[in-house]
Amino acid sequence: MKKFLSSAIIALLTLQFSVAQDKSMFSKEIFTSGNDTLLYRMLLPENFDAAKKYPVLIFLHGAGERGNDNEAQLMHGSKLFLRSDIRKDFPAIVVFPQCPKNDFWANVKFGDGKSGDRFGFQKGGEPGKAMQLLMGLQSYLKSQKYTDNSRFYVGGLSMGGMGTFEILRRKPKAFAAAFAICGGDHVGNVKKYKNVPLWIFHGGKDTTVPLSKSEAVVNELKRLNRPAKFTVYPEAGHNSWDPAFAEPEFLSWIFSYKR
Length: 259
Fold this sequence. Notes:
By secondary structure, the chain is of the alpha/beta class. It is built from eight helices and eight strands. The protein has helices at about 1-25, 80, 85-90, 130-140, 160-170, 210-225, 240-245, 250-255, and strands at about 25-35, 35-45, 55-60, 95-100, 145-155, 175-180, 200-205, 230-235. An eight-stranded mixed beta sheet has the order 1-2-4-3-5-6-7-8. The chain is globular and about 45 Å long.
């Protein structure tokens, strides 16, 4: 029994070490604008060649991963992009920015919604500091000689899904396609996404960000005859990102688009 327990502990530690080592493949970076900074992690394609041009995917994390450790934002999604088959089939620059602890990717006024609604999505308005920095980071990446400006993509989960809608309406011409998982937005902003192809995901039993938040965006997109895919997982709660990441066409759909 002792031998079995020791083997199990060793296996667990080895797995944890392996995961930590994999995440270290995301370099630690800092984007600075004036006196403000945005921490981010970046994964370059295998056999990166600065003389070539690569697509860029910006991944926006949820509220629970905010902070200043430049680490927590890799909790969800990073493993997908570290898979050897994914790196081989989709050579891209993958960027995980980290929203500061007391900020939010999107313009949301908490407790301002009707009927006790937790999220009061704002129509229009100025971007928050985190969004300003995020847009600055996107512009910086666009200026690099090794990035393909016709193939920038953005997506995220929960707060990051909300941030995806936010940056789409502020910089619709910057992105070739986008995905939003368990997010939401004010329907008055939807027309500003222009014609950026969107794949939206949500859990049918999500009690953190209700399904109705994505449904409102999708219904408005349909009314405007805009391109959008909508996938609902009837039995999923807030974690609709794991089944979304498992969709066979998830990345092939995203990377198929070009501006």
